[in-house]
Structures are given as structure tokens and as C-alpha cells.
Amino acid sequence: MINILMIEDDAEFAELLSEYLAQYDIKITNFEDPYLGLSAGVKKYDLLILDLTLPGMDGLEVCEEVMEKYDIPVIISSARSDINDKVEALAIGADDYLPKPYDPKEMYARIMSLLRRYSKAKNTEVAAPKSDFELKGDTLYFKGEALSLTPAEFEVLNLLVKNQGITQSREQIINTAGNMSIDSQGKSLDVIISKIRTKLGDNKRIQAVRGVGYKLV
Hey, what CATH class is 133-216 in? Predict the structure, then answer.
């Protein structure tokens, strides 16, 4: 699970975003008070979503303090449209700036993109270690054995491997797998997952997340 610290004084907005991201195994802990947020143990979180208009302390000040004390990716989430705020936030060290209002899907995409960049920078993975899987060229290996996969099976499994431990929606998988032919009920994805499980010889590695999609554990 990805743990995100959010400092946002709009409790309703924070709750809506939290409910949306929960389907992807992302937990948001929100603080309306920036002072409480800064004292919440910032380093135990994977990422910070920060509003700029906060009670008692400007968000830019919060961002500056976080940058000085912690190594954590920061996304500014603000309704302030002044370009100077955006420029200053990025100059201080914020990694991204997403103006309100926005679609929660875009926030999810930015979170995952940013965590991947941080993961590469630290030479570590965001999710659990993938010791059982290895990609060499266009071939995936499972426990040291090369897997014989169709193009569609490779695309689906490779996506799950890259995001191990993180739920991928059916829509994400279908859109990523360009070699898939999806019928009106989307049954082809379930067939491909079944065939991959058989080739892995392990039905428990790929879990179905009801109403959402699949994840590799």
C-alpha cells in the first residue's frame, strides 16, 4: 500500500480524493492544519499532496520546510492560479503542480509517475521487490525460467510486474496492452490472465480485485 500525507483544509475535497485513490491501494492521511501535518512524521509517508491556501501558514512555507528536512516527493494541489505561485513552488523543490479543479484520475496518474521517477532515482522499487521476475530484452523470466508468452500475455504480465503490489484497473490493462482484442464484455482479459496463471504455475500470484482489476503479489 502507498501511504500519502495530504495537507488540505478542504475536508470534503480530501475525502473525495481519498475514496477514489483507495481503489488503487493508496491511503491518504489528511491534516487540515499545516502544523499538525508537519508534526505527523512526514518521513513515514511515500508522498505529500500539499494545498497552498492553508490556515495559519502559507503552503509555500510548508513546502520550503518539507524540502529542507525531508526527502519526499511533493505534489502541489491548489486553486491559486497565479503563475508566480507555481514558479515559486517548483523553485523551492516541489515536484509537480496540479491546479484545482482536476479529475482524480489525473492525480492518480501523476502520483504513480512521480513515485516511479523517485524509485528509479533511488535505484529501488516502489512496490515489493520483484525477485521472482526479470525482464531481459523482450523476454520475461519467472524464477529463472523464460516464459513463453503471446504478445498480449507479455504486455499484460509486464504491466503487472512493473506495478507489483499495486492494483491495475481493467481499463489501464486494456489500454496498455495494444495486442489485446477486447470484446464487448471484456472477457478476453480474463482469458489472458487465466493463461498467464497457468504458465506461471501459480494461481495466487495474480489476484483479482473485485470491481477494479488485477494486481501481482
Answer: mainly alpha
Q: What is the pLDDT along the chain (217 residues), one digit of tens a residue?
A: 999 999 999 999 999 999 999 999 999 999 999 999 999 899 899 999 999 999 999 999 999 999 989 989 999 999 887 888 889 999 989 999 999 989 999 999 999 999 988 876 665 444 444 458 888 888 999 989 999 999 889 999 999 998 888 888 888 888 877 766 544 445 688 889 999 999 999 888 999 998 888 999 8
Residues whose CB falls within 8 Å of the CB of residue 13, separated by 6 or more in sequence, listed in order: 100
Query: Position of cell 496518474?
Result: 109
CA-CA distance, 217 to 214, in Å (whole number)?
Answer: 10
| CATH number, domain 2-121, options 3.40.50.2300, 3.30.70.660, 3.40.50.300, 1.10.287.130 | 3.40.50.2300
Give the distance, in angstroms, between the CA of residue 203 and the centroid of all CA atoms in the same chain.
Answer: 25
Going by C-alpha positions, the residue among 14, 18, 118, 21 that lies closest to residue 70 is: 118
Identify the H or E element spanning 206.
strand 206-209
Give the distance between the most distant pair of CA atoms in the chain.
59
> How many Cβ atoms sit within 10 Å of the Cβ of residue 212?
16
- Characterize 74-107 residue by residue with b for buried, 16 or more Cβ atoms within 10 angstroms of its Cβ, and e for exposed: bbbbbebeeeebbeebeebebbbbeeeeeeeeeb
